Each structure stands twice: as structure tokens, then as C-alpha cells.
Amino acid sequence: MPLFALRYRHPTLDKQLTKSRLRSEVRSMCKARRAGVPVPAVHLLDERRGCVFMERLAGGTVRDRLRGMYQKRKAGASPGEPGEADACKPYERGVAEELARLVVRLHDAGVVHGDLTTSNFMMSGPEAGGGKMHVIDFGLAGTSTSNEDRAVDLYVLERAVATTHPGSGAFVREVMSVYKNESKSGDKVMQRLAEVRARGRKRECFG
């Protein structure tokens, strides 16, 4: 995965920033892996060329899996039936629980991802269920034990899922419920998340 030079930046500054970002990305991935979070194995960091060589994963993104599922659900819905289910379907619940547990492991290990979207979780195995979930793309990740940073991570995930997957309210609720129950700081992070949501609504209203 190469990082391309940004021509509007001074070459020396660009190299320094690229090197720093690559080191941070690899450091976060290694820390997550040591904590038991399935991430691609890093084979080589080539700072001179601005490349990270890592394991290639087979499978599809959670985004694609959920999108297909919601499209099928919408196509099979009866006229006048609400678009958002009140409860997760079994497969949907399983995906939500696994995703939440991976985020819990990340946060409890002191890693914040910075870009939690359903595109950055990959699943192997058949679409009907089973397989293993991996977390990918640590380009914006960093180390932090701040509940504020963890709450922002969850807020990014919440907004990304709502925007990408209409009718996913039950999925999001399941993710947050599992996180709250299984994280060492679940209650405190949820309190912070409520504050982050309020700030987000205020920005949407007033710019």
C-alpha cells in the first residue's frame, strides 16, 4: 500500500509526514494484533518508497454484506411495512456483535481507529454466516486511552452506518449495546458519546 507524494507540499516535509504516518499505522496495527484483534499481518515497512506490504485478505467488506442484506429485506417488504426493523435478524445480529467486540478490543488495547466504517471491516466465509472478521485501514489510527477519543470513534461509526445503510437502526443499537456491556469503560464512553452526538447536532443546526 503506497502513499503517493503530495505535490503541493514541500518534498522534505512530505517525506517526513509520510514516514510518520506509516510508522503510526504499522504501530497501531501491531498493537491491535497483539491484543487479539484480527488485522492484516504486516510483512514489510519500506519508508524510502512510502509503502507498507501486508497480508492480502480474501472475502468481502461488511459494507457489501449489509448492503446486500438490506436490499433483499427492502425488496421483500410488504407495502406499508416500516423500512427499519425493530430487531436485528440473526445474521445481522451476529455481524453487529462481532464488529462491536473488535472495537472493544481495539479501545481496551489503547488504539483508536479513526475511520470506523463498514468498509473497514472485512469478512471471510460464506455470506450466509460464519467466517472471520478483520479490521483494516489503520491510516488514521493512533494510540489513546481517552474516553472522548473512543466516543468520537463510535460516533464516526454510527454516522457512517446510518449514511451508508438506510434501515440499519437496529444494527447500530446492537453494536452500541454490546460495546457498553463488554468494554471496561463502556458506561463512561456511552456518556461521552451522548455529548459528542449533541455537539454533532449543534454543528448540523448552526454550521
Automatic annotation (TrEMBL):
Reactions it catalyzes: L-seryl-[protein] + ATP = O-phospho-L-seryl-[protein] + ADP + H(+); L-threonyl-[protein] + ATP = O-phospho-L-threonyl-[protein] + ADP + H(+)
Documented EC number(s): 2.7.11.1
Keyword list, A-Z: ATP-binding, Kinase, Nucleotide-binding, Serine/threonine-protein kinase, Transferase, tRNA processing
One Pfam family matching this protein: Kdo
UniProt xrefs under InterPro entries: Bud32, Kinase-like_dom_sf, Prot_kinase_dom, Tyr_kinase_AS
Ranges where the Protein kinase domain occurs: 1-207
Database matches in SUPFAM superfamilies: Protein kinase-like (PK-like)
NCBIfam families linked to this entry: arch_bud32
Family: Belongs to the protein kinase superfamily. BUD32 family.
Name used for this protein in its record: non-specific serine/threonine protein kinase
Annotated organism of origin: Tetraparma gracilis
